Amino acid sequence: MALQNFQYDTIMREYSRRQSEVQRALEERRREAYSKVPRLLAIDQEVASLSARKARALLLGQPASIEELRQEVAALAKERISLLKANGFPADYLRPHYFCRECQDTGYTDGHRKCSCFKKAEIELLYTQSNLTEILKKENFEHFSFDWYSDTIKNEATGLTARQTAQRAYDTAWNFVQDFDSRFQNLFFYGSTGVGKTFLSHCIANALLESSHCVLYFSAFDLFDSMAQTAFSRKSETAPGENFILDCDLLIIDDLGTELTNSFVSSQLFLCINERIARRKSTVISTNLTLEDFSSTYSERTFSRIASNYQMVKLIGKDIRIQKIFLGGK
User: Fold this and answer.
1) Is the separation of the CB atoms in 185 and 192 below 8 Å?
2) What is the pTM assigned to this prediction?
3) Which of 232, 247, 166, 246 is nearest to 199 (CA)?
4) Residue 266 to residues 57, 227, 252: CA-CA distances in angstroms?
5) Are 276 and 251 in contact (CB under 8 A)?
C-alpha cells in the first residue's frame, strides 16, 4: 500500500490546485477592498517597499534600521486592520485563507515533515483506489443489523446468546469510537468465519474517517507484504512506509491468520503491536483463530502483549454470508 509516484503526483496536484484557488480568492478580495478603500492599496505598497528595505538592512547588518522598519510595518498593519473593520471587512480579509493553516497548503511542515492533512490525503487516496470507500457506505454503524444473530445459540463461557454477544461487541466498538480522543484503547475481535468481525472493523474505520482521523486498513496479507517491501527494498521518499503504519491514528489489521505465517511475519507483528502500544496509537485486530491457535501461531510473547493491552471481543453465531445466500442476498 505504499504510494506510487503517480499517486504522490495526484496528491501534489491537489495541493497545487488549492494554492491556485487560495491565490485567486485573495486577488478577488483585494480588488474588492482596494476599490472600496483605496488607502488599503497604498498601505500594501508601502509595506512591500518597507519589507524590501528591511531585507537590505538585514544583509548590511543594521539592527537599528531593522527595528525602525519593523515598527513602521507594524503601524501600517494596525491601520490596515482598522480600515478593514471600519468598512465591514474581517481583519484577515487581505490574508490568504488556506485550506490547511498548519502547512499553508504545501503538504509539508518545517520544510520536510508531512503535514497531517497530507497523511489524511494519502489514506483517502488509498481507500479510494482500493474500493474500500464504497464498502464503508454499506458497512457502518447505521447499517449493522442484529437480525443475523441467533437468540438460541449461546456462548457457554458467558451464557449470552449470539445476539446479546453481538450487541455487546457493537457497544464496545461504538464506545471505542466515542472515547477515541480521550482514552487509549485497542480491540481484538475473534470468532468463527462470517460472524461480523470485519463489518465491525469497517464501522469503526468509517466513523473515525468521518471525524478526520488518520485510519489505515490492511488485510493481514497486505500488511506483511507492505512491511516486507519496506524491509527489503530502498525506501521511497513518497511512500508511507513503516513509520506511517506505526504512526497513523488507528491501524486496522483484518483477517490475521490468513496470511502465510513465518518467522518474519511473527517478528514484524510483534514489532508493530509493541511499537504502537509504546506510541499509544490504537490498533484493531480481527482473526478467525481461536486464542489458543493465535498464541501458538504468533508466539506466546505476542499474545501476551495483546492480552495485556487489548480488549478481547468474541463474536459467535452462524456465517452471515451463507445466511444471506440462502435468503437470496437480502
Assistant:
1) no
2) 0.67
3) 166
4) 61, 12, 17
5) yes
